[in-house]
Amino acid sequence: MEIFDLIHRYGDLFYGVVAVWTFLEGETIVIFSGIAAREGVVNLTLLISCAWIGSFLGDQMYFMLGRHAGARMLNRYPRWQPGVDRALGLLEKYSTAFILSFRFIYGVRNFSSFAMGMSTLSWRRFAVLNFIAAGIWAACFAGAGYAAGAALQQVVGEMATAVTVGLLGVFILAAAVMGLVSWRRRRALAVPAVAAAVKAGPEAFSSSERRP
């Protein structure tokens, strides 16, 4: 199978793609890679580790972006306000439980780390809990993919590898396109805010402790 051969040959690059993808986006690549791990093409431990690191660093970046440029970004993109308010409400109500679980909550997950950066939550506490949460998240979705691969093996038997190759090939193509679009969109949003925060200097930092 050519795709599996490519992954075997360029394994380090594939794990790098997983790390970058989880830094930018969500769990889809982790699930499909978990299926490939069931076929022995991807090392499950390395997969979880790369997804863990990528997810952790991605949310740390958005937390710091919220801390140092959150108010400016909300002024520029007021449509984010409802999502930020909801995330902050959940943080206030559930505290630690919310930090550990926000990756699993659709509807607020995209705003959560950014919103928490705008709260009075210390970055050290967020970093520790975010590290634990990222590990739980990576293990859950890689494990889900691995279990799906086992189920696929039971259903289609010897055709499981061929089906997995087909799914992985389609996903890699779709992921490349979606990743490029997402990267351009996020870059267009983040770069002006970061530049404004740097230009503002200490004022941006002083405003970071105030919630919207």
From TrEMBL:
Transmembrane annotation, as ranges: 12-35, 41-65, 126-147, 159-181
PANTHER family recorded: ALKALINE PHOSPHATASE LIKE PROTEIN, INNER MEMBRANE PROTEIN YOHD
Protein name as it appears in the record: DedA family protein
Keyword Transferase belongs to the record: no
Superkingdom of the organism of origin: Bacteria
Entries under InterPro entries matching the protein: DedA_domain, VTT_dom
Name of one Pfam family that matches: VTT_dom
Domain VTT: from-to ranges: 26-146
Keyword list, A-Z: Membrane, Transmembrane, Transmembrane helix
